[in-house]
Amino acid sequence: MAFGATYDYVIIGAGSAGCVLANRLSANPQHRVLLLEAGGSDWHPFVHMPAGLAQLVRYKSMNWNYETEPEPALHGRRLYWPRGKLLGGSSSINAMCYIRGHRSDYDHWASLGNRGWGYNEVLPYFRRAEANIRGSNTWHGDQGLLSVEDLRHTNPLSHVFIDAAAEAGYPRNPDFNGASQRGFGFYQVTQKDGARCSTAAGYLADALERTNLSVETHAQVERLEIQHDRVVAVHYRHHGSSKRVEVAAEVLLSGGAINSPQLLMLSGIGPADHLRGLDIKVRADLPGVGGNLQDHLDICTLQRCTQNITYDWPNEVMVALTYVFTRGGIGASNIAEAGGFA
CA 118 → CA 102, 126, 160, distances in Å? Predict the structure, then answer.
């Protein structure tokens, strides 16, 4: 067992939340911050060229490639759950659609007793985080680290889709994150100059120059060490070696909806009977850990097109070259260009 230095803050998971936390906490030069990521760097060109997301599913080194247990309500089928396993986490492999929750979601959270989580209270934080190419207004900011742009390339079929929705009586909506979410239109995307703006690109890249921030990739956290009901150290494997780092202030779990509760349970925090069944010493009997997860179904359909205009046809080499030299063309598309809320 290798013993490392003591850090004020240890952040587990360099994804959509972890990179933001690393930036904000290390902004104070008095804080010693360690960011641990089980995956590797975000170097791959397909991560940064937006249309490359269609190819990322092939790279298991950048994707946890989870599958659910057989679902009784779906005739025993397993569902595929991609999750990012690299700097930026799922923000490095997603479709970059910039979508906030509906106003009623946040107001409902507040009504349950979660003070500070109502829509009017969280809106200033959305505005602070955002650098929207359209500028600042009631709903958007233009000084943040998360770049939000309009799509540089859209397919004719996306326009037809929106026109069809309008013909069916639905309103057009040029801004799903504005006054109303209802309607059909093009998504804005988390891109900067036509390239993906993951949290690794937006929040972590510049912060890496700070001497008080350390980042370790290929660092698989195995458990939290707890003494007297307080986490005092983090145990993880790094390139095959066991390591332990001590924590002076806080450990922040940002491994996502699957890996964070898993780590809590591996550390003895969770449903007691379940932990005992796995021979894990119970530190805290918390039945809610690892439970109550709700996800939405993503149902995909395919339709043969009568014209040579879909994204299944293009010359991939030309797409890449056009993107490299112009930051435009099909390579700048997020593929999921248009959508609607009804």
Answer: 11, 13, 36
Q: What is the C-alpha to C-alpha distance for residues 341 and 314, in angstroms, rounded to an integer?
A: 30
CA distance 54 to 158: 17
- C-beta separation of 45 from 230 below 8 A: no
Are residues 149 and 133 in contact, defined by beta-carbon separation less than 8 angstroms? Answer: yes
Return d(Cα 235, Cα 226) in angstroms, integer: 11
How are beta strands 230-238 and 241-253 bridged, if at all?
A: antiparallel
Burial class (CB in 10 A: 0-12, 13-18, 19+), 317: exposed
The answer to whether the pTM exceeds 0.90 is yes
Cβ atoms of 87 and 14 closer than 8 Å: yes
Mean pLDDT of the chain: 95
Calpha distance 224→115 (Å, rounded): 29
**Candidate from 52-66, 113-127, 257-271 with smallest mean pLDDT:** 52-66
Identity of residue 341: F
Residue 97 CA to residue 110 CA, distance in Å, equals: 26
User: Which candidate, 26, 129, 54, 44, places its Cα nearest to that of 86?
Assistant: 44
Nearest to 233, CA basis, from 18, 28, 21, 2 = 2
The enclosing H or E element of 242 equals strand 241-253
pLDDT at 299 over 90: no
Residue 89 Ramachandran class (φ > 0 left, ψ -120 to 50 alpha, else beta): left
Q: Dihedral, CA atoms, 61, 62, 64, 65, nearest 10 degrees?
A: -90
The C-alpha angle with vertex 37 and arms to 36 and 41, in degrees rounded to 5, equals 125
Judged against a pLDDT cut of 70, whether residue 57 lies above it is answered with yes
CA 103 to CA 95: how far, in whole Å?
Answer: 22
Please give the helix or strand (H or E) that residue 338 lies within, else none. Answer: strand 338-341
